[in-house]
Amino acid sequence: MENVSKKIFYTALLLLIALVSCMFLGDKASSVETHQETIVAIDDKVETVLKLTATSTIASAGVSAIPGDTATPIAEKLADFSEYFLLILCVLYAEKYLITILGAASFKLLIPIACVMLAIAFYKWPGVLRKIAVKLIAVALVLYVVIPASVKVSDMIYLTYQESINQTISSAEELSDDTAAISSAAGNESVISQILEKLSETKESLTDRAANILNRFIETLAVIIVTSCIIPILVLLFFLWLIRMVTGIDVSAYMPPHGPKRHGIRKALKSAGKTSV
Q1: Is 39 domain-assigned?
Q2: More confident call, 5 vs 29
Q3: What is the pLDDT of residues 176-197, one digit of tens each?
């Protein structure tokens, strides 16, 4: 009788936790206010990437105005950066919206389901249901913390290079301003010569400046790829490794696109005393 009372008590407690997670914690975890700091950090990167996209396009047009053909390949390379920055922009927007979606999925779906499974495990299939429930809770926690944690880590690198990124934008804008007059005088060699003399520049010096700016854009692109794309993946892998080390659970085997294998379910059911799937 005492065991039955305990089962009823723990069942009610687990169902209460599921209800609280779904009704209260889920709203909190999916709230924009809860993740305000992370969203602001992502928005700052979005603004920087938008500036870099516009600046690289304008700089490409300015470099193409430099007399001669030596600067043409540089202008083409600068124009290509807008495509790379667009892809990074998509990743940043995905992180921004996923942070609230994953919070809702974790606390409104996965954790309540895990609690219900643990409650049922008091009466039926305890071995199978408890293992699956623990895995669901582990996955839910990883999904919830992975983006905020990755943004925190990436900010450490991003802030170190922020001044360099700002200098890249400023240098590209200055070159665009210097070549604007040359572009308007296209085809008029005498006017272009006067403009270059006034700027204390030559075709070669402008080309060197353009090449230096191209190198700066390459460095900036590498930094943004690392902070916006690579670090989130590494943080996710770290959490999966940490969970596996601490609990012995291989979470990655239960995350898309890999699901539980049918023979794995059969084996688990056999260990619980069921011989058929």
Answers
A1: yes
A2: 29
A3: 877 776 666 555 566 667 666 6
For residue 277, being part of any structural domain is answered with: no
Residue at 70 is within a domain: yes
Among residues 140, 155, 149, 118, which one has the least CA distance to residue 29? Answer: 140
Residue range(s) defining the domain that contains residue 227:
2-271
pTM: 0.72
Q: What is the pLDDT of residue 1?
A: 53
Return left, alpha or beta for 68; rule: phi > 0 is left, psi -120 to 50 is alpha, else beta: left
Q: Among 216, 215, 180, which residue's Cα sits nearest to residue 198?
A: 180
Structure tokens at 10: 């723990």
Cis peptide before 256, with omega less than 30 degrees from 0? no
Mean pLDDT of 202-208: 76
How far is Cα 33 from Cα 11, in angstroms, rounded to an integer? 33
Tokens representing residue 203 in the block: 């075709």
Residue 193 lies in a domain: yes
Furthest C-alpha separation in the chain: 104
The closest of 154, 164, 148 to 45, measured between CA atoms, is 154
Collect all residues with Cβ–Cβ distance below 8 Å to 28 and sequence separation of at least 6: 34, 107
